[in-house]
Structures
1.
Amino acid sequence: MQRIGILTSGGDAPGMNAAIRAAIRTALKNDLEIYGIYDGYKGLVDGAINPLDYKDASEILTRGGTVLGSSRLPEFKDEVVQELAVNQLKRWGIEGLIVIGGDGSYRGAQALNRHGIKTVGIPGTIDNDINGTEKTIGFSTALNTICEAVNKLRDTSYSHHRCFIVEVMGNHCGELALWSAITCGAEVLINQEIGYDEERVLAQLAIHDSFRNKRHALIITAENMLDIQALAKDISAKTSFSGRAISLGHIQRGGSPTPEDRMLGSKMGKAAVEVLMHGEGAKCICQIKDQIVVRDIDEALADTSTKDEDLYDLFNYLV
Ligand code: ADP
Ligand code: F6P
C-alpha cells in the first residue's frame, strides 16, 4: 500500500487528534503517503481531501475536538452514496482508510469494506459504546469533565440541603452515567440498563435523607431517560431536599484530552497504520486488559463481553 486516508466521523472526542498525529507520523516514517479527509464521510463523498505532512501533526496533541473536522451524514447508509465515496478514494489513489469514530462510523467502514476498500476503525467517542474494546478514545476526558462539574455542584448542593440531578451524555449507552455515578459518589443511578422509575428514585433518596441524615444527594442519569426538571420539582415537593437539575451537554465533548486519552489515541493511531501497511482491512483497534489488540471489525462489534458488568455490583455496594 502506497497511499492511505484518515477521517474522523460522528461526535468528536478528545484524543482523536492524538490518534491523527500518531497515524501521520507512523505513516510518513514508513514511507507511506497519508491523506486527510475533512468532515467525515461528507468530506469523503465531496472529495474534501488533502495530503498530510509532519507540520499537520504538530501542536495538535493537547487539543480537544478533531483537526480533521467531523460530521454526520445519514445518507451514507445508501449504497449509491457509498459508491460516490469509493469513486473519490479511487480517484485519489487511496488504497486504505482509517476511520476514527463511534459504532455508527464503524458501520460506514464496514460498508466501504464490502465495496473493496481496506478499512480499519479506531474507537473514538466519549460514549464508550463500542463492543469489542474496553475503552474508547474520549471517554476518560469526558468522565473527568463530569467529575469536575459535579465536584462544584456538590459544594453548593451541600450548603443548601439539595439534591442535584445531573444528566450526562452517552447516546444509547449508560457507560458514562455508570462510571460517573461511581466516581462522583452518586446516591442514585439512572441509565438504560437500570431504567427509570420515579417511586424507586424517591425511595432511594428517602434512605439518604431520613436514615443517613445527608445534607446533599446526587442523582446521575443518562440522557433521554426522563424529564429532569419535572423530577427536580417532585423531589422538592415530596422530600426534604430541594431538587435542582442540570444537563451537562456538549461541555462533556470538549477540552484538552487526559493523559489516558492521549496515550490511547497515540497507540491506536500507530496500530491502525500498521494494519494497513500489512495489507489488511476490515479490522478495528481495541484495548483489552491494557493491551492494544487488532480484531476483525465484525467479530469485535458482536462481542459484548468487554463491558465491565461488575461495576453495577460495585455501585450497589457503594450507595
Ligand atoms: P458515531 O460514529 O459517533 O456512533 P453516528 O452514529 O452518528 O456517530 O454515525 C456517524 C456516521 O456514520 C453517520 O452520520 C453516517 O454517515 C455513518 N453511518 C452510521 N450508520 C451507518 C450505517 N449503518 N451504514 C453506513 N454508514 C453509517
Ligand atoms: O456520540 C457522542 C454524543 O455526544 C452522544 O453522547 C450524544 O447523544 C450525541 O453525540 C450528541 O450529538 P450532537 O453533537 O449531534 O448533538
2.
Amino acid sequence: MVERIWDTPEITGWRRVPAHAVRHDLDGPDRRLSLDGTWRFQLLGNPEQAAGDDWTGIRVPGAWTVQDAGGDDLPHYTNVTMPWPGAPLLLPEHNPTGVYERDFDVPAAWAGRRIVLHVGAAESVLLARVNGVEVGWGKDSHLAGEFDITAAVRVGQANTVRLTVIKWSDASAIEDQDQWWHAGLTRSVFLYSTGTTYLGDLRTVASADGRLQVDARVLTTGSVLPEGWGVTTELDGVPVPRDTAHEQAQIADDRVSDWWAEPRFTTVVPDVVPWSDETPALHTLTVVLHDADGAELDRTENRVGFRDVEIRGLDLLVNGVRVMIRGVNRHDFDPVTGRTVTAEQMRADLVLMKRHGFNAVRTSHYPNDPVLLDLADELGLYVVDEANIEVHDHAHEICDDVRYLPAFVDRVARMVSRDRNHPSVIIWSLGNESDYGANHDAAAGWLRRADPTRPLQYEGAIKDNWTGGIAGSDIVCPMYPTLPQIVEHARSGEQNRPLIMCEYSHAMGNSNGTLADHWAAIESTPGLQGGFIWEFWDHGILQRLSDGRPAGGSFFRDGVADPGYRWAYGGDFGDTPNDGTFCADGLVFPDRTPKPAMDEHRELASPIRISDAGDGLVRIVNRLGFRGLDWLSAVWDVDGSPVPMTLPDLGPGEEAMVPVPGDASWLTLRVSVGQDQPWAPAGTPLASPQIQLRPPVRALAVTAGTPAEVDDDGLLIHPALASSPRLSLWRAPTDNDRIGGQAARWRDLGLVSPSRRVTEIRREADRTVVEAVYETAAGPVLHRQTSRLLQGVVVVQEEVTLPDGLDDVPRVGTVFHVRAGYDEMSWFGHGPRDTYPDRHAGGPVGAYDCRIDDAFTPYLRPQESGGRHGVQRLSLTGPDVPPVELTTGEPRQVSVTRFTAADLDTAAHHDELTPRAEAVVHLDAAHRGLGTASCGPDTLPQYLVTAGVYRWEWSLG
Ligand code: GAL
C-alpha cells in the first residue's frame, strides 16, 4: 500500500482500470448495478483519523459541503487564491475526510464474471475499499475512477463498499479553478460486469465523406486470450466488415499480444449526412464480443457522427466550412447540489443555449459530466473539452515541476480516452490558467500522437505571444482581449492560426456591453472566428436564511421566491478568504433564468439577417453554415402589425430580395422554429431582425393632462410626482463599474449625491426657469430646468454643462419619484427586457408593457438594472390612479423601478432591499455603456458620457 498518496503528486492513481471509451451505461441486472442513494457517512478531521461507529446518512451522488451530513464543512469560494496559504504540498492540518459506506448484493448471474466499481467523480482524492480490501486510489475530481473488484466481492453474499474522499491534497493546487470548493462524491457510483475477456476500449473515427473506422480493444483478465473469441460491429443494424488489411494485426484474430487484441473494422457509409451543430445526425454503433460458442461476453453501444475538423490557414473548418464559434463556458453547477447535475438539468442547459444561438461549449475548466457530451452530440453543440488542470495560484511553480508531470499527462490522457468518440468534441484543451511549462508540452505531445484528428488549444501557451506557443496550442485562444487587439492582430499579417477567444464578454451582473460590436468585427474580419462568453452560470448557492446553511440538506427546489432563501456568494458561508460575488458572472441566474444579455446573444446569432436594399426591397440572408431555411418560419411585423410571409428557399450563405411588405418605420422579421427541433418545438422564437425604414418622429405628445402643481423652487410639476425632478449623474454601480474601478472614481468625484444650490429662479411669461449648481470634486455642474404647461401637459427642458473634469460619468439625466399606486408600465422603445446603449441588439424597437416590479432584473448583487434604451414614450398606470404619460422627444434611456440608486448601492443581497411603493423614474439624456470591465475590456469610447453640454426635453401629462 502507498502511504499518504494525498500529498504525493507523482502518484495520480493506483490500480485504476485504464481510462477508456467503452460505455457501460446499458442498465440491467446482468450489466450494471446502481449504487446511488443514501449511504452511511462520517466526516473525519483528516485522512489519518480512523472511522468510528458514528454514522449519519448522506445522499450519493452529492457533495457533503451542501448536505447536513457535512456539518460545518460548507462551500468555500475563491478565484485564484488557494484556501490555505503556503506551499501546495503543506496541506492544512484540518483536512475534511468523508467516509462513505454502504452494503450491496452482487447478482448471482455475475458469478465468474469480471466486476468493476465505477465512481463517477470524487473530490479530490478517492480511496476505495470493498469488504475491507483496498481496491484502488484515484485523483482528478472530474473524471471517473474505476476499480476491478472481482477478487474482493462475494457473489451471492452481502458486500460492503467504503469510499474515503479526502478534500485537500497535492491535487488541490492543480484544481484551483474559479469556483466553489466542495468535497465528496459528486457523480454516480455503480458496478458493472463483463466477461473475463472483455472490451477494454473502443475508438471510432468517422469522416464527413462516410468513412468509418472502428478499433475495438479486446483484453482478458487471464494471461492469454481464449481461442475463438470474436467481435462483431453493426452500424444502424448493418454489419461493419473487419478490416483484414489492418497492419497492427499480427495473427489471424488481430492479436497484438497473447492477451491484447485490436480488431479494426472499416466501411464507407453511402450518402451520409455529416454531423454538425446544425445537422447533428447520429448513427448507432453496436459492438459485441463473444466467445467461441457465440455467447456474448461484452457489448457496448456508441453513437457515431460523421464529421471532419481541421485547421486550414487561419480557419477552423468543420466539414470544410468555416463555422463561427458562438460559444459559452460551462461548469457543472447546481444551486442546491453544488456540482451534481442530472441528465435533465444538462439537457435544459444545452437546450437553453441552442435557443439563444449558442453552438459551442467550453467545458470550463475540467471534463464535464460525460452525459453532457452525449447531449452535445445529440443537440448539436461543438465542444472544447478541457482537462482538469488549473494551477492558478501556483502556476509558475508547478507547470515545470517534474513531480506534477504525471498529473498533467494523466489528466489530459484520461480525458481524451474517455471522450474521443464524441463528434461534438472538436478541440481539446490542456486546461486553464496554469502558466505554460514543460508539463503542458508533455501533455500536448501525448495528445497529438494519441488523437491526430483534432486540434488542441491552451490559452497559457499563447498568453504572452499570439504567434508563439505553437507546441501548446493550435488556436490563438486569448481571454478578454480588447476588440482593437483582435482586429489588429487579424490585420497584422502575422496571424498564424485561427483566433477563437476562450473567454470574452464577462457576464457578471448587468454586463455584456459591446457584444454587438464584437460580432460585427468578428464577422467582417478574416481570421476571427468567435469565442466563448464567460460564463453560463451565476454560481449562487441556495442558502437558508434561518441558519445560513445551504439548502442542499432539504433538497429545496422551488427557487428563491421563498423569502427564507437567497442566492449566496463568496463569504456568505463564513468562508475566508473569498472572492465575493465574482462567482456570479453568468448569463443565467442560479435557477437557469436567462438574463437579458441572453436576448442579445440570441439576436446576434440570428440565422437570418435582413437589410434595407433600397427601391422598396429587403435583402434576406441565410446565415447558416449547413442548412436551408425550411425548418424556420417567419412573419413580418410592420410597425406592430403582423403580415404573413414565406421565407425564400435559400441555401447556406445565400440571399434574396423581397419587397418591403408595407409602409413602416420599423420593419421586423419575427423568426421562429417552423418544424420541431430536438432543442425547440415549432413556434419557439429565435430572432427578430429589424430595420428602420423611416426616422422616428421627434415630438412631445400633447394630451389632455392634469393641472400642474408648483414645487418649492416654483418649478411646475405633475401632481403624480412624489419628488421634484432632479439631476442625476450617478447609477448604482454595476459589477463592471465596481470591479473595473469606475465606481470608486465616481464616488471620489462626488457624483453620488452632489450638493445642490439654486442660483436663480426666473418666471418668464408662461414658464419657470430654475438654475442650480451641483458641486462635484471636478467643479460645479450647471443645471437649468425650464418648466411650462402646454395644453395641460407639463413640459420640462433641461440643460447641463459637465466641466472638463467629468469626462466619464455614468449618466446625465433626470430622476423623479411617482406616487404609490402605479404598477404597470408601457413604453415605445427597445424591449421587452433591459437594454442599454451598448446592449440593445436583442431588444427590437416596439410597443411593450410589463409590471413595474418585473421591469427590474435582480442581479445577485443589487446594481443598476431595469434600463430601457431608446424610449420615446412611457405610460404608468394603476387601478386607482390616473394614468401618467411621459414623452421624451427623442429616444432616451429610461428606467422605472422600485429602488433608488442609493438603495441598490448599499445592499449586498436582494433580501436586504425593501421595494418602495413609489416608482423611481430615470430619464437620461446620456447613459454610459455597460462594458465588461469586471474582467476584461470596458465599454467602447462611443458609449462613454463625457464632458460638455447636454440638452433634453420631456413632458408629463
Ligand atoms: C478567467 C478564468 C475563469 C474566471 C474568469 C473570471 O481568467 O479562466 O475561470 O475566473 O476569468 O470570471
